[in-house]
Write a structure and sequence with these properties.
Two copies of one chain form a homodimer. By secondary structure, chain A is of the alpha+beta class. Helices cover 32% and strands 27% of the residues of chain A. The first copy, chain A, has two domains: 135 residues, PurM-like, N-terminal domain (60s Ribosomal Protein L30, Chain: A, 2-Layer Sandwich); 144 residues, Alpha-Beta Complex (Phosphoribosyl-aminoimidazole Synthetase, Chain A, domain 2). In chain A, helix 2 packs parallel to helix 3, helix 2 runs parallel beside helix 5 and helix 7 packs across helix 8. The longest helix of chain A has 18 residues. The radius of gyration of chain A is 20 Å and the shape is globular.
Chain lengths: 308, 308
C-alpha cells in the first residue's frame, strides 16, 4: 500500500475514550470499563459471495462489512468499543476501493462511538476480501447469550423480516441500541441476530439452549420487501417463506419468560415493532404451527458459513 | 462450510482461563486481568504474496499466520490472551487446507496459552486469504510503544538477522517471552518487531519517536542463513545487506538508556543473544556508520503494507 493512502485513511478513523494507543504502533491499546468483560467477533465478506463490487456501490459494501460485525455485538447486548479492519484489495483500483470502503464504515463507526484502531491493508491479484474484528464490552447485566432459552419462554423478534436482498442487506442499521435497551430494561433469557435467516438462526438458538421451539407462521412480521420479492422473483416462494428463510435481516431474535414478554409487547419500547412469534418447548425440534392448526418441522435452511 | 468440519475444528481450539464464552455464540466473551488494558492487532496473509500453498506446507503457513500476530503482541510487550481466525478458503480442497492451518496454529497457541475463541470460515473461487486478530493484555508495566525512544538511547536487537526466506519466515517463534521478560526486568524506552526489515522498522521507530538513529553496520548480528543466501542468490547483496533489509526476522528491536543497555548486554538475560547496534540521535535521519568511519543514509527499504 502507498504510504500516502495509509496516512489519508488514518485521518478518517474515528476514535473514542477507550483508545490509549491508536493506529501507528504494532498494536492498538484499549482501556475498557472496570468490571466489564470484552466481547470479540470477526466476520469476513468476499467479492462474489457477500457482495459484487462490479454491480454494487463500494461505499455500501464498506457499511455492510462493519455493520454485520456490530450486529454480532448487538446479539450479545454488548456496547461497541473498537474495530480492526483487514483488507485484501485487488491490484487494479485498490486505492479507490479502500477509500470508498472507509467512507462507508466511518459514519457507522461514529454513530455507535466505535473507534477504528488499526488493521492491515494488502493487495493481490485476487478479488476483494474484507475481514473485520469488532470489540465490545459487556454492560452490568453481562452478555446476552444463545444458550439461556428455557421451555415455556416466549420467542420475540424486532422489526420485519424477509426480502433483505432488495437492499436492506447492504444498508441495515445494526440493532445495537435496541439490544442494549432491551437487555438493560428487561430480563432476557437468550438472543441472536438474524443473519442466516429466521429458521436457521432459531435452530442455532435452540441447539445452544438445549431445547426446541414452535413458531406460529402467521405471526411472523413480514416486510413489504418480502411482499415485493414474492411478487416478482421466480422462486415461487411466498412472502412468508422469504421471511423465515431469507437471511441477512439483522433483526434480533430473543427469548424471555411469558411475563416479561407480555410487558415488552405492551410497552413496545423500541422505534421498531416487537412481535411474539412462538414459544420454546422441551423437545429438541423446531416446529411450524400453520394457520389451520397443523404442525410441520421447520427446515434448517439458509446460509451456513460461520464457525462462531 | 460443512457443519462437520466446523465441529471438528472446534474440538481443536485451545482455551484458557480468560474465556467466559468461547466459540458457538454470536461473539466470544473474555475476562481480562483487573487494571490491564487490552492490546489488539490484526494481520492478513494471502496466497501468492506471503506464502505459496502450491509449494509450501500448509501446516507451516498456519503457524506463520498466527505467529506474525503474536509477534505484534510481543512488540508491545503484551501477554497473549486470545485470537480470532478468519479464513477465506479456495473452493477446491478447502476442508483439507482449513484442517492443516489449524494444525499449524494449535501448538503455537498452546505454547503461549492463547485461546482461539472463534472466527469466520468462508469459501470462494479465489485463492486462500487468512486474517487473524490477536488480543493481549498489558502487564503492570503498561505497553511498550514505538514512540518512546530518545536521543542518546541505545539501539538493541535480539537474535540474528537476515536470510529468513530460507525458512525462518515460516517457522519462527515470536519473541513473546523475551519481550515480557525484558520489559519486566529493565526500563525499555521503545520497541518494535522486525517484520519489514531492520532498516525499515528502524525508520518506523524513529518516525514515531520523533528522532533519528545511527546504526553501526559491522555490529549487526548476521545469521548463518544470511551468509548462505549471500553465497547462493543472484541479487549480489552481501550477508550484511540481507540482515538490514531482508525482513520477516521477527526479532525485537528496542531502545533503552545507555546505562540500562550496559546492564542488559552484561546480563544477556535471554536464550538468544542481545546486540547493541547503534544509538538514537536528535536529527530525524537514519544513518549507517561504516567500518571505515564514513556515514551514509540508511535507505528506508523493505516490505510496505501495514496500516497499523
Amino acid at each position: 500500500m502507498e504510504r500516502e493512502l495509509i496516512s489519508h485513511l488514518r485521518t478518517l478513523l474515528p476514535t473514542n475514550e477507550h483508545v490509549v494507543i491508536g493506529p501507528g504502533d504494532d498494536a492498538a491499546v484499549l482501556r475498557t470499563t472496570a468490571d466489564a468483560n470484552i466481547v470479540v467477533t470477526t466476520d469476513a465478506l468476499t467479492d462474489g459471495v457477500d457482495f459484487v463490487i462490479a454491480h454494487q456501490d463500494v461505499v455500501r459494501v464498506g457499511h455492510k462489512a462493519l455493520a454485520v460485525n456490530l450486529s454480532d455485538l448487538a446479539a450479545m447486548a454488548a456496547r461497541p468499543v473498537a474495530a480492526l479492519v483487514s483488507l485484501v484489495l485487488p491490484s487494479t483500483d485498490g486505492d479507490r476501493i479502500a477509500r470508498q470502503l472507509y467512507e462507508g464504515m466511518s459514519p457507522l463507526a461514529e454513530r455507535f462511538k466505535l473507534a477504528i484502531v488499526g488493521g492491515d491493508t494488502n493487495s493481490w491479484d485476487g478479488p476483494l476480501a474484507i475481514s473485520i474484528t469488532a470489540i465490545g464490552e459487556t454492560t452490568f447485566k453481562g452478555p446476552l447469550t444463545r444458550s439461556g432459552a428455557r421451555p415455556g419462554d416466549m420467542l420475540l423478534v424486532t422489526g420485519e423480516l424477509g426480502g433483505s436482498i432488495l437492499g436492506k442487506h447492504l444498508d441495515f442499521t445494526p440493532r445495537v441500541e435496541e439490544a442494549l435497551h432491551l437487555h438493560e430494561k428487561y430480563e432476557l433469557s437468550a438472543g441472536i441476530d438474524i443473519s442466516d435467516g429466521l429458521s436457521r438462526d432459531l435452530h442455532h438458538l435452540c441447539a445452544e439452549s438445549g431445547c426446541g421451539a414452535v413458531v406460529r407462521l402467521d405471526s411472523i412480521p413480514v416486510s413489504s420487501a418480502a411482499d415485493r420479492l414474492a411478487a416478482t422473483d421466480r422462486s415461487g416462494k411466498t412472502a412468508n417463506e422469504h421471511a423465515f428463510s431469507g437471511g441477512e435481516d439483522f433483526e434480533l431474535l430473543f427469548a424471555t419468560s411469558r411475563e416479561v414478554a407480555d410487558r415488552i409487547l405492551a410497552d413496545q419500547p423500541l422505534p421498531v415493532p416487537i412481535s411474539s412469534i412462538g414459544q420454546f418447548i422441551e423437545k429438541q425440534e423446531v416446529l411450524a404451527l400453520h394457520a389451520d392448526g397443523t404442525r410441520t418441522t421447520l427446515p434448517n435452511t439458509g446460509w451456513e458459513h460461520h464457525i462462531s
